[in-house]
Structures are given as C-alpha cells and as structure tokens.
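V-type ATP synthase beta chain
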Amino acid sequence: MAIEYLGLSEINGPLVVLEGVKGASYDEIVEFRMENGDKKLGRIVELDEDKAVIQVFEGTDSMSLMNTHTRLTGHPMEVELSEDILGRTFNGIGQVIDGLGPVAAEKKVNINGLPLNPVTREYPRNYIRTGISAIDGLTTLIRGQKLPIFSGNGLPHDQLAAQIVQQASLGDDSDEKFAIVFAAMGVKYDVAEFFRRTFEESGVSDHVVMYLNLANDPVVERLITPKVALTAAEYLAFEKNMHILVILTDITSFCEAMREVSSSKGEIPSRKGYPGYLYSELATLYERAGIVRGGKGSVTQIPILTMPNDDITHPIPDLTGYITEGQIVLDRQLHGQAIYPPINVLPSLSRLMKDGIGKGYTREDHQDVANQLFSCYAKVGDARALASVIGEDELSPLDKKYLIFGNAFEREFVGQDAQENRTIEDTLNKGWELLGLLPKEELDRIDTKILDQYYHETTRA
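Tokens:
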C-alpha cells in the first residue's frame, strides 16, 4: 500500500522539497493532490537521506506547504503507446490535447528508454529524401542518423521543419512503413497552430505524431517533451518495424529550461550559466537514434536549435556538434537576399552521407557532383572577395564565370519554393546544369567517365 504524505517542507520555483520520505527512488513519479482537489505530477530529481527534491510538471501555483497531499507511485514517468498515436496531438507530457478522446494503449513505456548496446547497432546506409536540394544533394540525411539544423532567431527554421515533415519519404520505390514524430518545445501558440494547420492541409497528419509544449506551459514540462517523443519513436521503430523521422524544435528551449531548473536547485553553473551535465543530457537525447541489428525499423533525428546571437561556438551548438553526425547551418545573409531555404552549404556537412549515396542508393554521380559543387562554391567566395577590392569589371573571364555560377547556385540549387518537392534526379540534374556554366577543365573533382557522360555546357546572360 502506497504511503501518502501531508504537507511540504519547501517550495522553490518549479521544485518542492518533501522530508521524511521512505523507499523513494531517483526519477520516480510523484502525484500531488491540492486542497481544492486539483492533481499534479512531479518527478524526484534529488535524494538526500529522507529528503526528496521533486520537479512539478504543471508548476507549483496553488500548492501550499500545509495542505498538499503527496503520494509516491513507485515507478518512473511512463507514457501510454499504441499504433493509434499516429495522427494524434499530445501535450509535452504525453496527454491528448486534440479533443479526439483517449488513445487505446497497448502498453506503458518508461520515457527514459533503455540503453542500446553499441554492438547491436547497425551502420546507417539508406537515405531519407526531404525534397530539398541543399539537403538531399550536399548534406544527405541517412536513416538512423542525427543531423541537427543550426538556425538563429528570425530565420525560417519552422517553415523548413514543416516542409521536411510534408515532403520526407524513403523514396518513390520504397514500400516500407514511414512516419514522423514531431516535438515542439517552448513554441508560441501561433507557431504551434502553424504546424498543426500545415500538416492538416497538406494531408500528412495521418502519419505524424505531434507533441506540443507551448511557451506558456510549465518550464519543467519542456525537459520531458523530447523524452516522450523519442519513446514513441522507439516504440514505432523497434516494435512496429517502422522508419521514424524525429524532428525536435527548439533544443535551445530545452537547454534553457534545464538552466532554469538547475539554478532553482542551487547547482554550480558551468559555461554561460548552463549546468555541467548539459553535454550528457544532450547526448542522452541524441543517442536515441539509430538502427538495431536484426530489426526492420530505424530512428532518425533532426534536432533544430537557434544559436543565441548566431554564435556557433555557444555551448548548445558546440556540444551538439560533438555528439551528432554533421549539421545543416542556416545563414542570415542568404535569408536577407530572400533565398529560401537559406542553407549555407560550406559549413554544413553530413558525416554519414558517403555511405548512403551513389550507385544502388541515389545515383552513381552523386558523390562527385556534391564534391564539385562544394569546391566551385568555395572558389566563388574568393572571386567575390577579389571583386570587392578591384571591382567586378577587372576580374578575369574565369572569375566572372564563377560569380555567375555562385549567384545561380544560390538562387536555383539552394533556393527553391516552400512547396517544391524535388526528386534526387531533379537535384543532381540541376547540379549538372549549374556546373555546365564553368569550363569542363575546371571540374577536377569528378571522375572522367562520369564527366563525359553527364557534362553539358550551359550558357547564361
């Protein structure tokens, strides 16, 4: 029989302290019942002899030191799951908020997940098509990969996330089951409504599970949301044999919630005021992606984070870069030129791309085209720097061709319409069309046979 405690020792922000506790365990879920009959949930985040520090998910408003009843549940945070979660919308702690009634649960699963033995992991191979040339062509997303998007305040990462949800697929010839788990943390109501409306209007809602934590929701809930979403993704992938793409936005909100709660607990801060365990907390989330040997499903992650002051050396993008396999970087200058999506391809990379593209996956010329586009676009920067010093008219004919290539590359390859869903063939053919603006002898990163097969000269005014 569960023991019920009356009264609290201390209330501090989202935390409460309960003394005289027996048999409690770390991460255990606690139920609170207030004097007015309201109920709240919390979890134990610290234990010291008979004293327990508890995070309250819904915030500590209306809780009193004298008349709050506390009951230990004896288990960690669990979420109810079944295949019926597809097409449904939940709040940050997994409760239904779409008005369609409860989900018929098949099982309850611990949101902290089970550690995955590294030996059982399978190396990611096949790619996921997003329909966006700058991603599919140059920073290809591979099944089982974690590939973050580094953005900044005011950049269209929400629009890009919605487009990826609408367009992502395993390719036209795949008959495998594919679904998306979308988790938003600390977003404003209008942004949440934009996602919900966009998915409904585009007809993709039936294979999307949404977890929404709004900006006015309790800050502690933000720490739970990505774990709930990843638990749902693991269930669908490893028990229902589906390929799952998880989009987490915004990881910066998650980290700031962690900083706020850490400050409330009186912990010694580390870089920029974030707790010293920021790295391990991020790794705990990101490493819940991958493929298990012998299984048919996979979990692929696209975490989105806004870099404070566009600073890529800030602790959040810095640590994320250590853990993940590459990054996609959005650029404010390209955004200022009305180029969408404003992906800066030079600092962007996908470390697993080389093993998931080419013959049998995309097309045999894919790696060569990507290498050559990177190389040529890097030379565009040199030509632009020279033009800013001596003037465009004084450039050599070759440098002028590089300027034409650079402008066309940004407008036509990187830039595309928000509703445009390009196949991998469209992307590679567009790449060849742009490489045709340059002399054949400049294309030194492409195998001679492939160059002879695909190269054709292109002229632009």
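Residues 79-355 form a domain with the Rossmann fold fold (CATH 3.40.50.12240).
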